[in-house]
C-alpha cells in the first residue's frame, strides 16, 4: 500500500479550530402516521475541525453524518446550536452570509453521478464557482479551469475541459467534483463518503488526492466514512457518531488502537483487517453479525428508527439516556437515565460512556 | 464568457422523428404559401360560391371537387390548414408557456407562496376544460375570429401540463446537483433556469406537441358544434358544413375526407416527433463536438443513467 503523507506529516493537535459546531442539533419533523414526532438526526453535537487536519467522522448508516455535514455546509438549518468559522459565529439568515460561508466551506458529495449536472460540460460546472467567488476575466477563466483540473490530476486539463460528465469514469467524476469544491477557494472541505461509490481500485487515489490537498495546500477536511479502518489511514483525528450523538473522539491512533466506547469497539471488530484496508471486504464472523444486530438486526427495514440507527421521539422532548444502551453489552441502570459528559482518556482522547467516568 | 454549447440543427437519427418532422414541415409550407398557389396558379379561392357546379367530384379544375355551394374544396382545405395550424401553434404556445411557468414555479417555490400556486393549479385542474371552453367561446362568438379562439383554448388547457411539470420539478429540486449548485454560490433563479429547467426540455417539448394537437382538435370541435366562428374557413368549419349539408349521405368523400385526414395527420406527426424529444436532455444523444464521429455512434445507446436506476 502506498504510504500517505499521514505518516510523515501531522499538524500539531494544538492547531486552532477552523470550523466548530457547538451544541448543534437538527430534529427533522416526521410526516404521515408519525406526524408530530421528530427524527433526532443530530443531537447536541460539539465538534472542532482543526486547521490543516483531516477529521474523520465515523458511524453506521443513519447515524446522522450527512445531516451534520449538511448543517456545517449551511445546506440545512439547525434546530438549535451554533456553527463557528474561524472563531466567529456563522450567520445563516441572509443569503449573502451563506454565500460567504460557501466560499470558506465546500462540500464533496457521495455520488459523483448525481452531483454533476449531466447537461453541463466541466467548463461550465467549474466556471460557476470561479465566477461566484472571484471575478476572473474571460481570458483568465479558462486558464483557471485548466489549472483546477490539473490540480485534481485530470491531466491534461485542456482535454477534459469540454467533456460532459458521462464521458468520465466514476473516479474522474469525483475528481471533477473535488475541483468544483476547490474552485471556491475554500479552507475547509466536507467530504461525505467521497469514495464509497467508487470502485475499490480507485478509492486510494482519491484519498491520496485529499491528503495531498491537506499537506500541500493546508486544507482542513471532514472525512465522513462508514469504515473506521480507512479513517485511521487518512485522518489526524477521529470522532465516532451514534444516533445523532458523538460518543468518542480523539487522535486517530488513540481512538482506533485503544477504543474506549463499546460502540467504537464494535465498529473496529467489524471493520476489515487493516492489512486488507480499503479492499472493500466486509468484516467476517461474529463481529459483523453483532454489528448487524446493533444496527437493528436483519429485519431492521420495517422499523425506520432502528434501521436508521437514529432516535425518534415526541417533538420538543429530550431523549434521556445513552442511545446505545439497548444494544450495549455493558449497559447499566444509569445508562437509561442520562448520557455522561465527555470523560478525558488522555492526550485529547475523550469518550462519553458510564464505563469511563 | 463561458462558451455556449453547440446547439446546431441536426437531422435526427430516428426515422419516425424524421417522418413526423417532414409531415409537419409540409403542413407549415402549405399554410404559409398554399393560398398563393391556389390563388395564382389554380385561380381558386376558398370563399367564392359557385366557382363550379354543386358537389362536383375531383377534376383538373377542382382538385378536390366542390361543396354543395359550389366552393372549391382544395382551396378551402388550404385556407383551413392555415387557420387550424395557427390556432394550434398559438393555443399550444400559450398553454405550454403557462404550464411551464405555473408548474415549475409551484414545484420549486417552498412555503406559503408555493402552496398558493399549487392550489391555483389544482383548482384549474378540476375545472372541466371542454365545457369551460364552450362557455367562454360562446360569449366571444364572432368577435376576434380565430385568434380569440386560440387564446381561449390556450388559457383553458394548461393545467394538466402544469401538473406534470410540477411533479418533475419537485423531484429535481432535491437532486444532488441542485444542492451542489447552491454551494457553488448560484442564485435561486439561475439554478432554476440553468440547472432545473433544461432537464424538463423533453417534457416541455411533449407538452407543446400535444397542446398543438389538442388546440387544433379543440378548435375543430368548437367549429363543428357551431360554437366557433362560422365565417372563418378551418378544418373544423369544413366539417361543420359537411355535417349540416349531409355530405356523408350524398357520398361526397372528396369533401368530408380531407379535413378529417388532415387532423389525423397532425396528430400522427406530433406522435412521431415525440419519439425524439428525449434527445433534448441527453448530451450523449447530441453530437459532442463539431465533426465528432463519437456522437453519432453513441446515439443508438438508449438507456440514460436515470432510466437505468
Ligand atoms: N429529509 C429527511 N426527512 C426525514 N428523516 C430524515 C431526513 N434526512 C435524514 N433523515 C433521518 O435522519 C437520520 C440521519 O440521516 P443521515 O443521512 O444524516 O445519516 P448518515 O449517517 O449520513 O447515513 P449514511 O451513512 O447511510 O449516509 C436518519 O435516521 C434519516 O432517516
Ligand atoms: Mg450519509
Automatic annotation (TrEMBL), chain A:
GO molecular function: ATP binding; ATP hydrolysis activity
SMART domains: AAA (SM00382)
Coiled-coil ranges per UniProt: none
Limits of the ABC transporter domain: 19-268
GO process annotations (BP): peptide transport; transmembrane transport
Region (Disordered): 289-322
Domain of life: Bacteria
PROSITE patterns noted in UniProt: ABC_TRANSPORTER_1, ABC_TRANSPORTER_2
Residue ranges with Low complexity bias: 289-298
Keyword terms: ATP-binding, Nucleotide-binding, Transport
CDD domains: ABC_NikE_OppD_transporters (cd03257)
A Pfam family the protein falls into: oligo_HPY
Protein's recorded name: Peptide/nickel transport system ATP-binding protein
Organism from which the protein derives: Actinacidiphila alni
Lineage: Bacteria, Bacillati, Actinomycetota, Actinomycetes, Kitasatosporales
TrEMBL record, chain B:
GO cellular component, one term: plasma membrane
Domain annotation ABC transmembrane type-1: ranges: 81-274
Main location per the UniProt record: membrane
Residues passing through the membrane, by range: 85-105, 117-139, 145-164, 196-218, 254-277
Keyword Cell membrane: yes
Membrane topology: Multi-pass membrane protein
UniProt key word rRNA processing: no
InterPro entries membership: BP-dependent_transpt_permease, MetI-like, MetI-like_sf
Chain segments carrying region Disordered: 286-309
Keywords tagged on the record: Cell membrane, Membrane, Transmembrane, Transmembrane helix, Transport
Localization of this protein: Cell membrane
CDD domains: TM_PBP2
GO molecular function, one term: dipeptide transmembrane transporter activity
A Pfam family: BPD_transp_1
Origin superkingdom: Bacteria
Family: Belongs to the binding-protein-dependent transport system permease family.
Name of this chain's protein: Peptide/nickel transport system permease protein
Organism: Actinacidiphila alni
Amino acid at each position: 500500500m502506498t504510504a500517505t503523507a499521514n505518516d510523515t506529516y501531522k499538524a500539531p493537535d494544538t492547531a486552532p479550530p477552523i470550523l466548530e459546531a457547538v451544541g448543534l442539533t437538527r430534529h427533522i419533523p416526521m410526516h404521515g402516521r408519525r406526524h408530530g414526532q421528530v427524527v433526532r438526526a443530530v443531537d447536541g453535537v460539539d465538534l472542532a475541525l482543526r486547521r490543516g487536519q483531516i477529521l474523520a467522522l465515523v458511524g453506521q448508516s443513519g447515524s446522522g453524518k450527512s445531516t451534520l455535514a449538511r448543517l456545517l455546509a449551511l445546506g440545512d438549518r439547525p434546530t438549535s446550536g451554533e456553527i463557528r468559522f474561524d472563531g466567529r459565529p456563522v450567520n445563516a439568515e441572509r443569503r449573502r452570509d451563506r454565500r460567504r460561508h460557501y466560499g470558506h466551506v465546500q462540500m464533496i458529495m457521495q455520488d459523483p453521478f448525481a452531483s454533476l449536472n449531466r447537461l453541463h460540460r466541466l467548463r461550465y460546472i467549474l466556471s460557476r464557482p470561479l465566477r461566484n467567488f472571484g471575478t476572473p476575466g474571460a481570458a483568465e477563466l479558462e486558464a483557471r479551469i485548466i489549472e483546477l483540473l490539473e490540480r485534481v490530476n485530470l491531466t491534461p486539463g485542456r482535454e477534459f475541459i469540454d467533456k460532459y460528465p458521462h464521458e468520465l469514469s466514476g473516479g474522474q467524476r469525483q475528481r471533477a467534483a473535488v475541483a468544483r469544491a476547490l474552485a471556491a477557494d475554500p479552507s475547509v472541505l466536507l467530504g461525505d463518503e467521497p469514495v464509497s461509490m467508487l470502485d475499490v481500485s480507485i478509492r486510494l487515489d482519491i484519498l491520496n488526492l485529499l491528503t495531498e490537498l491537506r499537506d500541500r495546500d493546508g486544507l482542513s477536511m471532514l472525512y465522513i466514512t462508514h469504515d473506521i479502518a480507512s479513517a485511521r489511514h487518512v485522518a489526524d483525528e477521529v470522532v465516532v457518531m451514534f444516533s445523532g450523538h458523538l460518543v468518542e473522539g480523539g487522535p486517530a491512533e488513540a481512538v482506533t488502537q485503544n477504543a474506549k466506547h463499546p460502540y467504537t469497539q464494535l465498529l473496529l471488530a467489524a471493520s476489515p483487517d487493516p492489512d486488507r484496508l480499503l479492499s472493500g471486504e466486509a468484516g467476517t464472523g461474529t463481529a459483523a453479525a453483532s454489528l448487524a444486530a446493533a444496527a437493528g438486526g436483519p429485519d431492521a427495514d420495517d422499523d425506520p428508527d432502528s434501521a436508521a440507527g437514529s432516535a425518534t421521539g415526541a417533538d420538543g422532548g429530550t431523549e434521556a439516556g445513552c442511545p446505545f444502551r439497548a444494544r450495549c453489552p455493558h449497559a447499566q441502570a444509569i445508562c437509561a437515565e442520562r448520557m455522561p459528559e465527555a470523560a478525558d482518556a488522555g492526550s485529547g482522547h475523550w469518550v462519553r460512556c458510564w464505563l469511563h467516568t | 464568457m463561458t462558451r455556449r454549447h453547440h446547439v446546431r440543427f441536426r437531422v435526427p437519427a430516428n426515422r419516425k422523428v424524421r417522418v413526423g418532422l417532414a409531415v409537419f414541415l409540409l403542413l407549415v409550407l402549405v399554410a404559409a404559401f398554399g393560398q398563393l398557389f391556389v390563388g395564382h396558379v389554380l385561380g381558386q379561392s376558398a370563399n367564392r360560391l359557385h366557382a363550379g357546379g354543386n358537389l362536383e367530384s375531383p377534376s383538373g379544375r377542382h382538385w378536390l371537387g366542390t361543396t354543395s355551394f359550389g366552393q372549391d374544396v382544395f382551396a378551402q382545405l388550404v385556407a383551413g390548414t392555415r387557420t387550424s395550424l395557427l390556432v394550434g401553434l398559438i393555443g399550444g404556445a400559450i398553454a405550454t408557456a403557462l404550464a411551464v411557468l405555473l408548474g415549475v414555479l409551484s414545484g420549486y417555490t417552498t412555503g406559503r407562496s408555493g402552496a398558493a400556486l399549487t392550489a391555483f393549479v389544482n383548482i384549474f385542474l378540476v375545472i372541466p376544460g371542454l365545457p369551460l371552453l364552450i362557455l367562454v367561446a360562446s360569449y366571444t362568438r364572432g368577435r376576434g375570429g380565430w385568434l380569440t379562439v386560440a387564446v381561449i383554448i390556450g388559457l383553458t388547457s394548461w393545467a394538466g401540463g402544469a401538473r406534470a411539470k410540477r411533479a418533475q420539478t419537485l423531484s429535481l429540486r432535491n437532486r444532488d446537483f441542485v444542492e451542489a449548485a447552491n454551494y457553488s454560490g448560484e442564485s435561486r433563479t439561475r439554478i432554476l433556469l440553468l440547472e432545473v429547467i433544461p432537464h424538463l426540455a423533453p417534457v416541455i417539448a411533449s407538452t407543446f406537441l400535444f397542446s398543438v394537437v389538442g388546440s387544433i382538435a379543440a378548435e375543430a370541435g368548437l367549429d363543428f358544434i357551431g360554437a366557433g366562428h362560422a365565417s372563418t374557413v378551418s378544418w373544423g368549419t369544413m366539417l361543420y358544413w359537411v355535417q349540416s349539408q349531409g355530405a356523408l349521405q350524398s357520398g361526397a368523400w372528396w369533401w368530408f375526407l380531407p379535413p378529417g385526414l388532415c387532423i389525423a395527420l397532425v396528430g400522427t406527426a406530433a406522435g412521431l416527433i415525440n419519439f425524439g424529444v428525449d434527445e433534448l436532455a441527453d448530451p450523449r444523444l447530441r453530437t459532442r463536438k463539431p465533426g465528432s464521429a463519437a456522437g453519432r455512434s453513441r446515439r443508438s445507446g438508449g438507456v440514460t443513467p436515470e432510466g437505468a436506476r
